[in-house]
Amino acid sequence: MALVDVETTRAAVTANLFQKRRDLRGAVFQAVLLLTLLMSVAILIVLLTSIVTDAWPTLQDRGTDFVTQGLAAKPEDAGVWQGVLGSFVIMLFVILLAFPVGLAAAIYLEEYARDSRFTRLVNVNIRNLAGVPSVVYGLLGLAIFVNTLGNVTGGDSILAAGLTIAILVLPIVIITSAEAIRAVPTALREAGYGLGATQWEVIRGHVLPYAAPGILTGTVLSLARALGEAAPLILIGADTFYRLAEGTPLLDRLQGPFTALPYIVFDWSRNPSKEFREIAAAAIFVMLVVLLAANAAAILLRNHYEKRRSA
Amino acid sequence: MATSATRGPGPHVIAAGDLRTSLSRRRRERTMRGLFFAAAALSIVISVLIVVSLVGEAGRFLANVELSSLWSIGWFPRRGLFDVRTLVVGSLIVTAVAIVIAAPLGLGAAIYLSEYASPRVRAVLKPALEVLAGIPSVVLGFFAITVIAPNIVQRWFGGGGPFSLLAGGIGVGILVIPLVASVSEDALRSVPASLREASVGLGARKIDTTLRVVVPAAVSGLVAAAILAISRAIGETMVVAIASGATGGSLFTWAPNEPGQTMTAAMASLASGTDQVKGGSEAYQSLFFVGLLLFLITLVLNLFASRFVARVRQRY
Fold this sequence. Notes:
The complex is a heterodimer of chains A (311) and B (316).
Chain A: H1 6-18, H2 24-62, H3 65-68, H4 81-112, H5 117-131, H6 134-148, H7 150-153, H8 158-182, H9 186-194, H10 199-228, H11 231-236, H12 250-255, H13 261-269, H14 274-310
Chain B: H1 2-5, H2 16-19, H3 23-64, E1 74-76, E2 81-82, H4 84-116, H5 119-134, H6 137-157, H7 165-189, H8 193-201, H9 206-217, H10 219-235, H11 238-243, E3 250-251, H12 263-271, H13 282-315
Antiparallel strand pairs in B: 1-2, 1-3
Helix pairs in contact in B: 3-13, 4-7, 4-10, 5-7, 6-7, 7-10, 8-9, 10-13, 12-13
């Protein structure tokens, strides 16, 4: 029996243990995976650059006039002012209605609710509502706010649109807030109860401050969603052209015609002329700037709260 | 406390009533609890309102319409032709195109991010996907009509004009890539590290560990990602409404490079523009009929998806 000498064995073992075995199949696989990821990033870059290049002439010629001027039939006069205003009011509805109600529902589900059949029903229901397509919310708004409650909302008005969008983002607010509240350590609550605090006092004084960064992130996500949503506005009946007289009282404004940035983008994008395409790109640019501003505000707020937590 | 203090010296007997907090505090507790409960119950009310408003008008539509007009040459609601087949096939084409694009790109990105990426690469590329996820769908509609339609669809697939189901489908596909990537990545990351370690310990290569251990272990989460993507693609409105064209109606077609109409785009085009349909007409009621169909399809898909997600959670 021929013995393999020690040196040969050692060399073979070392080679197997420490040298990288050549694995062509693995390397190709990894490269393909990286390629798929980079493709998505490349699409994002192409998307953003194409919008900026299309928008550039308009933004350069018109500057801030494009934002402060109102809707007009000719592309060279048309601006997005009513759209900015409409989107702002819709976001206000989300902040004033969807945030408090959504947070309250999340608090109930995480802090109060027992594992009953009703609780499970509510949870499944909220997850399903989050998956309902946004046009269907538009139908809800059309049936309830535009037609049934038309006397109150004034029909196809910003009031109907704001209420509809608030309902649309409610499930997202609930789900993200509930996740943030679930992440609060139980010990924090027990410490509060140990000192004699009531349940609401524990929630207000301990749970909510601790969960605030997570809740804020979720609320900004839903604001971004509210800002970009166009489909429900089409169903409710956003307008392509209108002008309100100066000094119109607030209630009449709320019940009057409306539009919003994403709706303007939709309307102009469908127009085949090159000029409208260009101002559509410029309107997208304005919308993305508002989106970025909202996101940046959220990150700043979150950092502020997180700093307070660690201090 | 006050009651035991009046008893003077001697051993204090603490009654249950002494531990109870003041009336105003208890009342506040009850109020807050009631408010929170009402907020949670509101979500049920919303669902009921959705179903009631859809079913009511959809029922009136079915009662009024001639059933033969539901199966005709195309979808022309203003002329009384309500061929639902046109819309369902349109939605199917757009969804199929979207999945062909989003499934490989999203899944590949998820596997790379979960199994291969170094923390530094992850810190750069993951936010890029999140930005893509935050782009509003109208913007992708604009991209589909200005970039995808002339440069991809018309150049390679021909077709008549700028509007096509294919351009819309590609746009929707881009829109759902981040959704597929994030749900798949969650599923892959929830596979316990011990499974990977056991596989590597047996001498498996990285690729075999990934494809034969991690991916099969996460498969129900990956299926959930696919179902959610389908549901999202069927329900997506704006990309198709902008890029797939056919305002007013569309002939029945199987050709992806032709303009067409999906369920969602049909609703948008019926409701948009100056000639909005008003309550009472058949066209108005048909909106709710299509909406109900869409609602039911996405509901079933979402219920399926959440069952698959629950399975992943249960196992690990």
